[in-house]
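Budget justification, computational time. The allocation requested in the original proposal was used primarily to generate C-alpha cells for proteins on the priority list. As evidence of use, we reproduce two of the resulting records. The first is shown immediately below.
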Amino acid sequence: MKNTCYPVLFLFFFLQMSFAGAQTIIYQKGVYQKKWTQRSVLSQPKGFRPQPEIYLTKKYIKSILKKFKNGASFVLTEEVYNRPNAVLGDKSDCQFVYTKAQMDEILAKSKGSVRGLERELYMKPGSLDRVRLMRIDVDDPKNYKLRMPTGNEPGVNDSWTPGGHYPNEYYQAVISRVPKSEVRATRIQ
C-alpha cells in the first residue's frame, strides 16, 4: 500500500443544534465511513466506543492530525507539573491536546479568567478553583503517538464529539506521556 499524502481540499461544515440539552453536529460527507454517523458512535457506551479508524475516513483522520504539525499543547496544574515524575500526561497514556495555535486562542479568549478557561476547555465550572495552571507545549507530538481520541479516555465528558474537534471547532487529539525534558512549560495564572 502506498503511503501517499493527498492534499485535503474538502471543508467540513457543521450545524449545531440542541435537542434535550445534547449537542448534535451534522458533518459534511467525507468524514464518516459508510454506515457510521456521529450519533451511532455516541450511542456506544464509554469504554465500548470503536477506534476512530473504524468509523472515520483515513483522509479525514490525516487532515485532523496534520493540524498538529506545529506542535500540541495541554494544561495541567502546577502541582502535577512539579511532582518528581520525569514524565507528564495522563496515567492512562491518553493526554488530550490542542494545537499550539489554538491554545494561544483559548488563553486569549479566556482573558485570564478561570471561568473563561473552564468554558473554553469544556470543563465543569469550579474545577480550576484554587489551582495554579501550567501550559505545556510539545513541539513534535508525533513522537508521542499522536492519534485521534476514541471517546473511551478518562476525562471524556458530555461535550466530547467524535471527529477530532470540540463543538467550538478546537481540534483535539491524544498523545502518550511525554518526558518533562521534552516540553516547554509556562505558568498561566
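The second record produced under the same allocation is shown here.
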Amino acid sequence: MESRKLIMAGLIAAVLVCNLSVSLAQNARPGDDLKGQLLYEENFSTSKGSLWAGSSDDNWTYYFDNGRYKMVVYRMNSWKSYATRNNYSNFIMDVQARQEGGTNDNVYGAIIRKVDWNNYYNFLISGDGYYQIAIRENGKWSPASWKRSDAINMGNATNLIRVICNEDAFSFYVNDVLLEEYKDSSFSSGNIGLTAGTNYAIGSAEVSFDNLTIWQIKNS
C-alpha cells in the first residue's frame, strides 16, 4: 500500500512538472532563449531617480503620467524623441507602447544604438498599421519605406515592441510577430530611447510607454 502511494505521488509530480514545462514553453516569447542578464528596467512609476525627464512647450510635451511615460506632439510633421545616456551593445529591448488619442496617422517607437542625434536606428510603428526601420547617419536619413502589418494593433491600442540587436543582426517584433530581420554594421553600440510624432494629418500624436526592459544577449 505504501509503495502504491509513493508511485502515485511520483506520477502526480511528473505530470505537474510536465504541465509546467508545457506552460513555460507556451508563454515563451520569440528571442527569450537569447536573454542573459537584465541590464535595465523602468516602469515609470515615479520620476524620482529615473533616467527619463519631462519637458513641455508649444510643440510637444513629455512627462510621467500615472505609471506611464507620455509623449504628446501637437505640430504637424513633427517628432519628439528622448534617449537615456546608458550605453548598450548586444541586447533585447522590450517596451509597451500605447496610443492614447490623436490621429492614427502618427509615428511612435524605439531608438536603438544612438551614438548622438545624428547617428542612430529607429524602429517605428503607426496607429494606422504601418512600420518602418530607419537609419540616421551623419545627420541624414537613409531611404526607408513604410510597410503594412496586421500584427500592429491600430488606433487607441497597446502594442508590445521588441528589438533584438545582436552584433550586426537586428530582429524587429510587434506583439511577438517578427516583422523584419535586418543587417547593418553602422553603429555597434549606443543609447536607447523613445519617439512619438505626427505626419501630415491634422491632429496630435498622443502616445505612452511602460515596462521598458533591456536584456543582455547571452555570451556577448
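A brief technical remark on that second record: Residues 1-30 form one domain.
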